[in-house]
Amino acid sequence: MRYGFFIWFKRWLLSFGVLLISGCYTSGIGYDESATRYLKPNVSTYDDALLVMGGAPVNVYPRPDGSKWALWYFSRALLPDAIYSERSTMLEFDSEDRFVRQVPYAK
Predict the structure, then answer these.
(1) Which of 37, 72, 76, 92 has the fewest beta carbons closer than 10 A?
(2) Which domain CATH number covers 47?
């Protein structure tokens, strides 16, 4: 009888784990938020930003004057609409791909 309980418990635990994991998701790329401290205005380049941020941005917004804004974004949820965290960083680069500033970004 005791052996049957352990089999039932293992199946229940496995089912619960699958159900819990199926509600998890991530969006964007993981990046280091504090990496912007290594970027120097008018010195660092877009390629430097890719290196220190740990990957490419999720979106790049070209501007009419040749400059661009690059958005790094990462979101993770344990349970949709319940337990989640998100972060974003937007950086501005001039027409020669030099870092200008961190842009205030409202989600």
Answers:
(1) 37
(2) 3.30.1450
